[in-house]
Amino acid sequence: MKTYKLLTPGPLTTTSTVKEVMLFDRCTWDDEYKSVTQKIRSELLTFAGANPDEYTAVLMQGSGTFAVESVMTSAISDNDKVLIITNGAYGERIIQMAEYIGLNYTEYRVNYDEHPEEAKLRALLAADPELTHIAMVHCETTTGILNPLDMVARLSKEYGKTLIIDAMSSFGGIEIDVAGLGIDYLISSANKCIQGVPGFGFVIAKLDKLTACQGISRSLSLDLYDQWKGMDKDGKWRFTSPTHVVAAFAKAIDELVEEGGVPARFARYQQNNRLLREKLASIGIHAYISEEKQSPIITTFLFPSESFSFGDFYAYVKERGYVIYPGKLTDVDTFRIGNIGEIYVEDIEQLCDIIGEYLGGIGQ
User: Fold this and answer.
1) The 3-state secondary structure of 331-356, one letter per residue
2) pLDDT tens digits, 73-82
3) What is the rounded CA–CA span in Å between residue 225 and residue 341?
């Protein structure tokens, strides 16, 4: 099987040392394994700047979507109402969850290349006293736009709302002061900026909010409160955990610390992203999101011409060692390139050279 570097938003390219720890089998009941779970939970709080007297971390089997849905079904009761801010497919997925669960909600939707506006949010919050929660995606992987977390967190505090942040594609790669911002639930996944592999998500939750969730969940397997109570006792997951993935994530955490923590990883990602956008712009491929709204995680690019074939382009790039992502927009033709994972400047330079060769040759 040929090895590729994944320029995607996760799963992503991992180190050989993260892969190696998955060569060993582990028992879910073993104290050594349970101590790995507890170590992960503690380290996540450290990255979040969260005091364990005020916050906890809960791991949840499944993809990141499972972890988001665990919060939506466990933290919002039938008597609550949530304001869901959307400007991409993953915000819209939260709407789908609300529909499936039967939650009372209001959607504030803006275009995929726009930020939510403070004045409009204020108007919505002031006009509807029934609203109890706010939910938003921080980095919307649909486009790569980075949403204004500080502003939304400030409004949430001002109006006394419970704040739920899907930080799937940003936590670990962008500094987020969870406690300082007053985020009540922050959700991310093992296979994103911490650079582990797919298999579980996690929730950093304010303890007083989580404690009040007992009995709310409409799902057994996604009951965040129950998962926390069992895990908090001794590190035991309620149901079979992805042992290989957990071990890989613990190693990935060690490597994040060795790299210099979140600030150092952010700097690498940002350098990758800046170089990528500059080099592609110089050969006629332009980003969909404006620079001031662009995250350092993934970038959406417009097709350079009407005759551009993404299928041919994808195959050409893959044949030369890199895998990119199709676009996720319906109104304009795009493709996406991620720059998280074990990716460095030399990878970005090589990729841009490959793209330049394509455009200068068979891609014309």
Assistant:
1) CCCEEEEECCCCCCHHHHHHHHHHHH
2) 999 999 999 9
3) 31
